[in-house]
Amino acid sequence: MSYIELYGLIRCGSFHQGRSILKGLSNEIRSYTEGMLEADWELFQQKKYNKVDPDLEVLCYLDNILIGGIIELSQLAIEKYKYIENTSQSVFTSEAESSYIQKISNPSKKYVLWHIKIGESPEKKIVIELDVQNCPRTCENFWQLSNGFKDLNYSGSIIHRIIQDGYIEGGFINTASGKSHSSIYGEFFADENYSYLHDKPGVIGMSKFGRNENGSLFYIALRPLLHLNGRMVAFGRVVEGMDVIKTISTLPHANQRPITNVVITKSQDYLSILMPTAHESRPKSHKDQGSSKLENADLETLIARREAIVKEIESTRQELEQQKILRNMISELIAEMTA
């Protein structure tokens, strides 16, 4: 029995399409699937192939041999197992979003969304994961500063330092009395622990003036910085937007300060931004609708959707059949030429 592995971005519909195919082949094969956040997906590619393709969404392996992406998996399912995946792409898109939200709803983590503006360029987004289980006090400080604590807020602050091939640094907060480096606990708070390792790009930690002098300043690593283990308190990582961090790290600078202004224009709880989308995409219950009976307009909508899905399925079947006929014709032609 063949063994198929599927890896990909958990927020991409193509990954969930692949999962559906493998589920349909569950009596024919053994399989393993793993959906990842952006940072983990990039690390996976880097480890496997020593490079990262920003457009790559899925990788599929048959008996430990790479066969390609979702197209190759679909072809394998058709040609070897006579299986055609007919589910609408909109279903996979919905599954991707709900799975993504479920993954970042882990109670041991919190997620912060930053909007970053580099000079006059359009704003970019960065998502930061906080390890609240292992560094609760440090994460609470960063979390409160990211969402606004009294007059302390990372919104409006700048990235003020670039150490090439090392890290970028920010966290001086604008207040009515000037720039502040204070924490939510007072000016400084003590080193919590050193359990979170600097073993990958994107690790975020507390910059400090001395031992046990953590405030609002932070750094984001551009690569593994193992020499900081046991010395600096790391508490999370960038899970989306490392390309933005890398762009910042390459900016021209003088005395380690970027010449181009880099501003955190907005900082907020990421999950609170996503949950309205999740609520809208969630099917309404009879209680939500106020009645268990479908109105005529609802019924017409359902019928129209059903007809659209049927047409899409039929179109897919016809296209696949045409591809099969074409492949057979090519095979016959090659056979005649080599006879």
From TrEMBL:
GO molecular function: peptidyl-prolyl cis-trans isomerase activity
Organism: Stentor coeruleus
Compositional bias annotation for Basic and acidic residues: 279-290
Disordered: region residues: 277-296
Top-level taxonomic group: Eukaryota
Coiled-coil ranges from the UniProt annotation: 299-326
Listed PANTHER family: PEPTIDYL-PROLYL CIS-TRANS ISOMERASE, PEPTIDYL-PROLYL CIS-TRANS ISOMERASE D-RELATED
Record-annotated PPIase cyclophilin-type domain positions: 113-269
Gene Ontology CC annotations of this record: cytoplasm
SUPFAM superfamilies the UniProt entry points to: Cyclophilin-like
Protein name as catalogued: PPIase cyclophilin-type domain-containing protein
Keywords: Coiled coil
